[in-house]
Design a protein that fits this description.
The protein is an alpha+beta fold and 189 residues long. The strands form 3 sheets. The protein has a 3-stranded antiparallel sheet, with helices on one face. α1 runs antiparallel to α3, α2 runs antiparallel to α3 and α3 runs antiparallel to α4. It is globular and about 45 Å long.
């Protein structure tokens, strides 16, 4: 096992990270990572906020390759590699065993009017408060949340808001794969 520095939390990333090109690359990396694990182990992160995503600068990796279900996707990284951390609230299935945190009796995550609280309430509504059930829409909800937060830090918001609108149509990251190039076509508004 090798332990390495994955980068800084997105919420603390250096200002030069917050460009449209880097944000699109980060969202692509997240979508492809989540699509792969949605398909292979029915994975949901369930807590993918700015503190649980790292942005590491590595100029030696200008292109990242993602093998998802036998298809290879190449993503220009602009030297930024995105890493997901903190799997405390995650859900996955390994063979016949479902591993998850049962949040059905947890109230503190669902109280209040903050954006993340409302997001958790929406996820709870989606899964009927049954946290064992696989509901990949939660991954999409978190991607949308991250993109909204990143838009606040970027100057090119019109095209990024167009990307947000295109991503909202999907119920899972895996479902985005056949339309991946079209979704991330940043010439569209």
């Amino acid at each position: 096992m090798e332990l390495c520095h994955g980068g800084d939390m997105l919420e603390a990333a250096v200002k030069k990270f917050y460009t449209m090109t880097n944000i699109v690359s980060a969202i692509k990396q997240l979508v492809l990572t989540l699509a792969a694990v949605e398909d292979s182990i029915e994975f949901e992160h369930r807590d993918l906020h700015m503190g649980n995503v790292l942005a590491g600068h590595d100029p030696n990796k200008p292109i990242l390759e993602f093998d998802v279900c036998g298809d290879v996707y190449k993503v220009p990284s602009n030297g930024w590699v995105i890493t997901i951390i903190d799997f405390t609230l995650s859900r996955l299935q390994s063979e016949d065993c479902v591993i998850f945190t049962d949040l059905s009796k947890e109230m503190t995550l669902f109280d209040g009017g903050r954006t993340m609280t409302r997001l958790m309430q929406a996820v709870r509504e989606d899964n009927g408060n049954d946290w064992k059930t696989f509901n990949p829409q939660s991954n999409v909800r978190w991607i949308l949340f991250l993109l909204r937060e990143l838009i606040k830090r970027c100057e090119h918001t019109v095209k990024l808001k167009g990307l947000l609108t295109r991503l909202e149509r999907y119920k899972s990251c895996y479902q985005m794969l056949p339309h991946f190039d079209e979704i991330f076509d940043m010439t569209k508004k």
